[in-house]
Amino acid sequence: MDEPARRLKATITQSVVALLTILAIVGTLFCSNAFAQTAHDEPTVQPEVTQEMAGVMKFGLLAAAAAFGLGAIGAGFAISHVGAAAMGAVAEKPQIAGQALIFVALAEGIVVFGFITALMILGKL
Amino acid sequence: MAGVLTKYSFINAKLRARISQILPDEVFHQLGQAASVDAALALLRDTPYAHLEEVYNTSGDLRLAELELLKSEIELYRNIRQYLHESSMPLVDTLLLRFEIDNVKNAIRIYFDRKIRGRLDESAAHYILYEPIHRPIPMDLIVNAQSFDEIAGVCRGTPYRAIVEKYGPIVESDGSLFRMEVAFDHLYYGRLTAAIQGLTRDDREIAVRLIGVEIDLLNISWIIRFKRFYDLPLDVIEAALIPGGFHLNRSTVEELYRAQNVTPVLQKFVVGTYPGLSALLASQASDSTSRLTLISHILEEIRRHEVQRILAGYPFTIGIILAYFLLKADEMKKVRTILNAKHLGRPLEGIESVL
């Protein structure tokens, strides 16, 4: 195996290991929060939902769905082009794989913004 | 209709990466300094031209290595073609047509030398491509033909038949292939212009500019050569010129034809469009051969300017594909020139002035 191909393989392996590590950490944190919440057996009081609040909630949920959904569609559209271009360039010059992945990640950022916006909207409801 | 991103994001990124791998000037400088063809080929070992060494070592024939280089160039177009959007394919197919036309012209030259001029050069037939490039044309039948009628029959179903039928008797009476070869060139550039017209507006503008500069380049060299070496009258030269040039108009053609020294005319032509190049024209060449070399340098420089302009501009156009083809053809031309110069034992200064 030649040097650029070996470097590409090492970069991919490192990226996968880093991703799995982050997923493991985030997963552990969220799971412990969930168990912590279920540990309290306090009775919850459901607030009375007025018609006005229901309307706000309805549009709020729709806005959250749109923020995430459109963000995901936008990211998909962007990645289809950026990813194709990146793979085209990496196939010719494997040493630019790291730089190419940055551009794919930038396109991926669109869905993250959508996700955060959706979370912010849901937080207000 | 597909958007520009769908058409060009993948292929243009791929070609940009390939353009960055085109051999730099230092490599050509080193090649120029190599002691022999073998040494030059050894320097090309870690490049896409490594296979030339094997061909040369096996056959000891540099022309076969050149033929191999030509095959690589054809393969380059085919390789790019497979990644293209269908709207860009006709243009690349037409660019590929140039190789077939050149191959047919070479085969007809062999027939002409053997049959009409009565010169027998058995080796020439080895440097023709016998594999189909665009259409399956049996080249061996053209090379070994007994008449232009036979060649026309071999070219049945191709646009070359009409040219051979029309110009065959003229070639026999003139004793020169000049008119037939001009007709072949007109056929190619006519097809190319038609293919450019099929592109979208943005792509068309870029292609017209780039191909137009190439046509200008060809026309200027033709005017100079036809006048200096064949002493042809202006109307014959005008009829031979390829239409579709980007800068060259009728008055410039006439001026170029009448001028004893064409450099001032070219200077006027260059100053308006490419101010950076006037310095090159300021250097005066004494004899007509060095003037011709200087002019071809200037025209090459104009083309390089256009390619750089495209590479620095909006990336989602057909310009990147055309620029890649031009840069790659330029690289192959340099390799070919250096190897030939080494083979003929030309001095380093001579090689560098050509590069």
UniProtKB/TrEMBL annotation, chain A:
It is a multi-pass membrane protein. GO terms for molecular function: proton-transporting ATPase activity, rotational mechanism. It is found in: Membrane. Gene3D superfamilies: lithium bound rotor ring of v- atpase. Keywords: Ion transport, Membrane, Transmembrane, Transmembrane helix, Transport. It comes from the Bacteria. Belongs to the V-ATPase proteolipid subunit family. This is ATP synthase subunit C.
TrEMBL record, chain B:
This is V-type ATPase subunit. InterPro entries: ATPase_csu/dsu_sf, ATPase_V0-cplx_csu/dsu, V-ATPase_V0D/AC39_subunit, V-type_ATPase_csu/dsu_dom_3. It comes from Anaerobaca lacustris. One of its GO terms (molecular function) is proton-transporting ATPase activity, rotational mechanism. Keywords: Ion transport, Membrane, Transmembrane, Transmembrane helix, Transport. The keyword Transmembrane helix applies. The chain crosses the membrane at residues 310-327. The keyword Transport applies. Gene3D superfamilies: ATP synthase (C/AC39) subunit, domain 3. SUPFAM superfamilies: V-type ATP synthase subunit C (SSF103486).
